[in-house]
Hints:
By secondary structure, chain A is of the alpha/beta class. Chain A is 28% helix and 25% strand.
Amino acid sequence: MTDAAPAKKKRKFELDPKLAGYKGVWVFVEHERGQVHPVSWELMGEGRKLADMLGVELAGVVLGEPGEQTRRFCNEAMCHGADLCYLMADDILKDYRNEPFTKGMTDLVNAYQPEILLLGATTQGRDLAGSVATTLQTGLTADCTALTIDPDNRSLAATRPTFGGSLLCTIVTLNYRPQMATVRPRVMAMAERDASRSGRVIEHPLGMVESSIITKVLEYIPDAMQDKPQLAFADIIVSGGRGMKKPENFQLIWDLAQVLGAEVGASRPVVQAGWVDLERQVGQSGKTVRPKLYIAAGISGAIQHRVGMDASDCIIAINNDPNAPIFGFATYGIVGNAMTILPALTEAFRQKLAAVKKAG
Amino acid sequence: MHIVVCIKQVPDSAQIRVHPVTNTIMRQGVPAIINPYDLFALEEALCLKDKHGGTVTVITMGPPQAEAALRKALSFGADDAILITDRAFAGADTLATSFALASAIRQIQKNMPVDMVFTGKQTIDGDTAQVGPGVAKRLDMQLLTYVSKIVAVKPEASEIVVERRAEGGVQLLKTSLPCLVTVLEGNNQMRFANMPNMFRAARHPLKLWNREEAGIADDDIVKIGLKGSPTVVSKVFAPTPKSERAEMIEVESGDPKDMAVTVLSKMFTRFPAVEKEIAKRAR
Ligand SMILES: Cc1cc2nc3c(=O)[nH]c(=O)nc-3n(C[C@H](O)[C@H](O)[C@H](O)COP(=O)(O)OP(=O)(O)OC[C@H]3O[C@@H](n4cnc5c(N)ncnc54)[C@H](O)[C@@H]3O)c2cc1C
């Protein structure tokens, strides 16, 4: 079974008139511990484009506890491009739980009928999306890397990698609404914030009582930030691959990262060899990153690595093979031995920093 | 305690080809394995069985060849295995797949109540992570996704406590059985198959269920396979991302130091934001 049904011969598509009332693009505003997940604003930027292509409104959907915080999230959603927000505020929604959030989201969809619903492909977004799509009996395309509107039939064309990134497929949901999609963090560019924007807030009740909800949150244990690498949001990343040859040599990656105040990343073989933590893997089965600067040493640039990092603003690749695929898409290429180039780079950056300091 | 583990047979390699006419994936010649993420779910189920006793049933929906995946699971220690296989299932997306699996699990429940359903976090071929949540919804079971640790199971009290990975932290959740758990990778390691289990696995009478045996009535044919799939692949293609070759840094001396200085000055000219970012670090 593939993850979506194979295409049949092209036939003329006509939307079921019953579904014509579904209008507008929605973005689920995900938050945890008082913080909106950045993926929501990335989706808002993308959702804005889709809504403009369709000539419809863009809405944020906020579920959470009553009070100033969820109001603020609504306001932020407008600043990031939404025309309006649907707000469901109830004490039951204080922590994310599948059951009440699924009920809340499905009720909102049934009441206000959006044609497109976008969520982050995070632990929360994927948990919710699968449940909501099943409850609504509609199509869901997971982990998309590109979204657009098919001009022929105004449906959402969602592109996603499949088979570990070896292939891409474009998936459409024809006669079902809403068309749902999830997108991984850092795949789309963040929407510009415009503090002057505002919009209306539509409140809708959840209509549940706590005693009817079976799953309880006993505790929330936040990750200790200091030892968890925050790769996805790092501005500078220094990554090493199998070409570093030995775990001892990987120290050169750490040295450069330290001078730059950068995070350390790695290709999959390095993670599998146990040189660094799983958290540091960049690529299809690891993290998607989009730093300002990505330095890749001894990494060949296989497609599964590339999909995780080629949205970086600037990529410096170091490889001793002039034909390495990474030179096909890096910004700057250095052909040479990483063991000598890395220390030279570390030194050059150190001098740059010293110069900046001296200049004040 | 009865745990049903849903597994999937997937192609082992990135060497996937696409049929030029039908845009379907050609699996011929690609070795098939149990989806690696599912092994964590199976091992977790076997650990619970070691601790509490009970039965572990593995099920998969797939072509007849998926039998190999089930026999492998039996060799690790699963008690029973069911292959749900019918041409009518072909072309299923996540919604149609969850319908078929949920229906089969309901059939299993008729013979022996099911306390828990385990799945892997996601598959390596589809990568959607959506079938588990779908099955839970259809069976009206509590859903626990991305479970990194099963803290306690109290079968008498019909209760389970787990740690669930959330963004930026871990949720400690308590819920009632029956429930569906998607197990996070990396927190256990699949045991080795022992001799008695290997013999048993080879001889075990596998159950093959077609559509009717999986409990899907004629009326529900529209909910499975291609017909039951809202999503349609309109195009499959090899990635050809924006290809702009790197500007190669060449210096006459061939000295790494000169290369480093050259690349920095080029970069700072073209990407002032990078220079600014680095300058921040000097403070
Ligand atoms: C389903 C699936 C998912 C995957 N997910 C990921 C993923 O998330 N992330 C990921 O990275 N990979 C992933 N892979 C693996 C991917 O296909 C590649 O195998 C992997 O990225 C290669 O890692 P590498 O570049 O470090 O090693 P290699 O491909 O072995 O490349 C090493 C490079 O180092 C160069 N080199 C050697 N010596 C030196 C030297 N002295 N100085 C400089 N350069 C040197 C070589 O020329 C070569 O280009 C996945 C694969 C599959 C099938």
